[in-house]
Amino acid sequence: MPQFFVLLAAMLWGTIAIFVKQLTQFGFTEMEIVTIRVLFAFIWLIPVILLQQKAVSLKIDIRHLWYFVGTGLCSIVFFNWAYFKAINIMSISIAVMLLYTAPAFVAILSVIILKESMSKKKIAAIAVTITGCAIIALTGSGAQGEWSIVGFMIGLCSGLGYALYTIFGKLALRDYDSLIITFYTFLTATICLIAFFPFWKKAVALPLEAWLYMGGLGLLPTVLAYLLYTNGLKKIDSSIASIFATVEPVAAVFIGISLYQEKLFTGQVIGAMLILSSILIISEKKKNRSILE
User: Fold this and answer.
1) Closest among 44, 25, 46, 98 to 222, alpha carbons compared
2) Are 29 and 270 in contact (CB under 8 A)?
3) What is the rounded distance in angstroms from the CA atom of residue 187 to the CA atom of residue 220?
C-alpha cells in the first residue's frame, strides 16, 4: 500500500500539464495559473491542517520568514512559472525531463549552500544529467516547433527552482514540521502573487468547467499528491520512494503523446533516460525529497 500511495502521487504530479493546457485555453497566462495553483492549494490545506490538529503549531518565529520567502517565491513561484512556460513553449515530454534535472541542481547547491561534501556519486549524477540535457538540446533542433533555445533554458530554470525547494526546505525542517512548511510556503506565495495577478477578473465570466480545473489544480496534483507521497514515505525508505516517483515523467510523457499527439525523437528518449538514471544514481543516499512539487 505505501508503494501504491507513492506511485499514485507521482501519477497525479504527471497530470499537471493537463491543467496547464486547459487553463491556458481559457485565457490564463502562466503567472495567473501559478497564482491559481498556490491560492487553491492554500485553501485546500486549511482543512488538512485542522484535521491533523496542527493548528497549534502554526506559530512561527518572525526571524524565520526568509525560509518561506525561499520556498514560496524563490522555489514554488519561480519553478511553477518556468515549468508551465516550458510546457506551453515546447512539448510536455521535454518540459518534464528538464524539470527532473532538479536532483543535479540539488547536488551542486547543497555543496555551495549547505556545505555538504561532493561525493563521486553526485559528480556522476551531475555529469549524466548534463549529458542527457546536451543530447536533448542537440536532437531538439529538428523538432519542428517543439523545441527552442528559450524554452530549453526556461525548462532548466524549472529544475533549478524545484531544487531550491529542497535547499530551503531542508533549512526550514530544522525548526518546523513539513506540513507547516508547506502551509506557509503557499501562504507566502499567495500573498505575494494575488495582488499582481487577479485571475478572478477573467474567471468570473468563465463556465463551471474552468473553476473545476482551477480547484483541481490546487487539489489533485498538489495537496492530494503531497498527502499521498508523505503517507507512503512513512512506511518505505525515501530512496526507494524517490525511484517510484520517477513514474511522474513517464506519466507526463504518456499524456503528451496520447492526449496532445506529441512526438519523441530517439535522441530525446536517450537524453530522458540519462536524466532519469541520474536520479537513480543520486537517490541511493538521498534522505529527503522535495516536500511538494
Assistant:
1) 44
2) no
3) 18
**Cell numbers describing residue 283:** 537517490
Helices (H), 142-246: 149-172, 178-194, 200-203, 208-218, 225-233, 238-244
Ramachandran region of residue 53, left (φ > 0), alpha (ψ -120 to 50) or beta? left
Cα end-to-end span (Å), the chain: 22
pLDDT of residue 83: 97
Instruction: Give residues with Cβ within 8 angstroms of 191, minimum separation 6.
Output: none
Grid-cell match 520568514, residue found? 65
pLDDT tens digits, one per residue of 110-162: 889 988 888 888 898 899 999 998 888 777 654 444 678 899 999 999 999 99
Q: How far apart are CA 197 and CA 31, in angstroms?
A: 7
Read off the pTM. 0.90
Predicted pLDDT at 142: 47
Least confident window among 20-24, 41-45, 192-196, 275-279: 275-279
Look up residue 227 and give its amino acid. Answer: L
| Residue found by looking up cell 518565529 in the block | 61
Q: How many residues does the chain have?
A: 293
Question: Which is nearest to 10 in space by CA: 183, 238, 224, 239?
Answer: 224
Question: Where is mean pLDDT largest: 89-103, 140-154, 183-197, 244-258?
Answer: 183-197
Radius of gyration of the chain from its Cα atoms, rounded to whole angstroms? 18
